[in-house]
Each structure stands twice: as C-alpha cells, then as structure tokens.
Structure to design on (344 residues):
C-alpha cells in the first residue's frame, strides 16, 4: 500500500478568510500606441511589423506613419498638447495639496499614492503629446516624410493592429504595450466579512485547480474600495510579478486569495488532507512504525491555507499519514488491525 506522512511539529497559524480575486494591470503600466494623424502605416526601418510578444523599451520605434494631411492635423495635435498640459498642471497641484494633508495627518498615505499615480500618468501623457506635436511640426509640411510611432514605456507588446500600407485614421490603435512587472490583485471581500478585515494582511493566493498557496513578493495594499460591488468590497494589492518567471500572473487570471483575520499562534498543525470524516468524527491515522497504524480522534482549531490546528489528540513528533490515509482506514476496518485512540 502506497502512503506518505509527515511529523507533527508546532507551526505558526492564524485565522484566515478565502475570497475570489482577479489579476489586473497597474494604472500607468499599459498604453496604446495610436496614429496621431491620418496616414499610411509602414514597419519601422529594418524591422518587421510589430507583433504581440515583442519586448520593447520606452522610446523604441514600433512603426511609422506617412501623413496624408497637413495643417488640420497639426491643429489637433496642438489642442491635444494643451489638454495634456492642463491635466498635468491639475495633477501636479493636487499632488502638492495631498502631500501637505498627509504631512498634517488629515488624509492617509493611500490618498498620496493615488495622487502620485495620477501625476505620473498625466506626465507620461504630456510627454507623449509633446513628442507627437514636435515630430509632426517637423515632418508634415514636407509631405511624404514619416513620423515614428514609439513605445511609451518599457514592456511587452500584447496587441498589434493594422498592416503596412494600410491607411490609419487619427486615434486608431496600432499597438498596446504592457509593463506587467508589477500587477494588481483585486480581492472581492463579501460584505458580511468586512468587520474581520479592518487591517488586511499576509496576502496569499492560489490558482484555480491548484492546491498550493503562494505568498506574492512585495505585496502592498494600495486601495480599499468605498462602495460595494455586487455585495462585495474590493481590496486592491499591488504585487511584484517579475521575481519568479515560473509563477507569473496573467492579466484577467481568476485567483483565490486568503487574508489573515487575527493574530498568529504557534500550534500543532497538520495538512487538511490528513483529517478524515469517520462517521461524523474527525480522525487522523498515526503511524507508529513500519505498517503499524492507529486511528486517532482529534479536536481541531483554526484552518488556514490548507492546514488546520490540532488542539487535542496528537503529540509533537508523532507521524501522521498524509497520502493514503483513507485507504489505511478502510483496510484497518476490514482486518481489525488498526488501533483506536481518543482526543483528550
């Protein structure tokens, strides 16, 4: 009979809640490369047409466009630049205001991070508008001169549109670039559990269909929702997505998230798979050596991310069967060779 076990030792465990979650892009870490004017598309010099999966750096030429019109496009680009300047000025003013409020203890650090994110996004949009305007002014009057379409940030091309020779209209998407080195994990907390998560901590995640829980690297709570959405409040964590390529999170990936709801305690714990339901009683199979087993009643406590605390019924250093426990229980019933023990 094939089986495996583990020794019972004290481990830290805390009460936890498990909830659905989803992976999202961090605002400001994805951008569209668009046609700034009506024109004919062509591939970047010496390169093939931009393709999904390409790694790019900020400023890298992804494609080019030859303008088919003149002054009206310049006017629109100038209007776009003025709008970007106004947005940046407003974001800069709001960031300074929030810094003062945070220093005085009026608002939280979260509000400062939101203001900083808006400022950085506005700054990027302004720099892109300046580049488009300056390049257009330098190329459009001569006619036939191509305007370079550049990646606005470091990342990976996740979508590509159009083909060389196609006429693109102003605002048409040419490519989408994503920087997923950091992502958001949006956790949906049911309304009835909000009181248990006043201070969310120790985020762990599990992919659908998997049993193993992982702790994301460099996890920070960046946003706590203010309104319920379908009976749940969102908690948004920003996590590192670049440390371990084998566990990279894709945008839109559904997850199960787990958050601690209380203080850690050091208790004897076992994997949840160890505990069997034997006619309504929680039991484990203790291995005494070789193929000598004992059915032991246990009293259980806190459950968390695949483990459960054992309050009574086991002693430190005892070995419990993890894989094959149910088969051992059934075999013992048939032969009468399995011992019986009781929780204290």
């Amino acid at each position: 009979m094939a089986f495996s076990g583990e020794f019972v030792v004290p481990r830290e465990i805390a009460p936890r809640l498990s909830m659905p979650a989803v992976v999202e892009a961090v605002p400001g870490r994805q951008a569209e490369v668009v046609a700034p004017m009506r024109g004919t598309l062509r591939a970047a010099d010496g390169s093939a047409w931009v393709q999904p999966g390409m790694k790019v750096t900020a400023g890298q030429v992804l494609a080019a466009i030859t303008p088919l019109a003149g002054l009206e496009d310049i006017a629109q680009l100038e209007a776009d630049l003025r709008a970007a300047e106004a947005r940046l000025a407003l974001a800069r003013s709001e960031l300074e205001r929030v810094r003062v409020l945070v220093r005085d203890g009026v608002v939280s650090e979260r509000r400062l991070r939101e203001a900083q994110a808006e400022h950085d996004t506005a700054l990027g949009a302004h720099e892109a508008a300046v580049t488009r305007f300056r390049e257009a002014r330098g190329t459009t009057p001569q006619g036939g001169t191509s305007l370079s379409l550049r990646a606005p940030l470091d990342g990976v091309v996740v979508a590509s549109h159009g083909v060389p020779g196609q006429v693109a209209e102003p605002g048409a998407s040419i490519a989408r670039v994503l920087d997923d080195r950091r992502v958001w994990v949006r956790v949906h907390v049911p309304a009835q559990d909000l009181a248990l998560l006043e201070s969310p901590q120790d985020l762990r995640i599990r992919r659908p269909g998997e049993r193993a829980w992982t702790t994301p690297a460099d996890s920070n709570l960046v946003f706590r929702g203010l309104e319920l959405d379908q009976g749940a409040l969102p908690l948004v964590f920003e996590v590192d997505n670049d440390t371990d390529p084998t566990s990279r999170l894709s945008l839109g990936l559904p997850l199960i998230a787990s958050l601690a709801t209380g203080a850690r305690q050091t208790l004897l714990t076992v994997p949840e798979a160890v505990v069997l339901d034997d006619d309504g009683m929680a039991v484990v199979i203790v291995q005494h050596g070789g193929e000598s087993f004992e059915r032991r009643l246990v009293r259980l406590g806190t459950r968390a991310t695949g483990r459960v605390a054992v309050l009574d019924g086991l002693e430190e250093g005892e070995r419990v069967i993890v894989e094959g426990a149910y088969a051992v229980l059934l075999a013992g019933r048939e032969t009468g060779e399995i011992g019986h023990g009781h929780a204290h």
In short: The first strand starts at residue 4 and ends at 7. Residues 71-139 form a domain with the Helix Hairpins fold (CATH 1.10.287.470). The helical segments are 71-103, 109-139, 325-335.
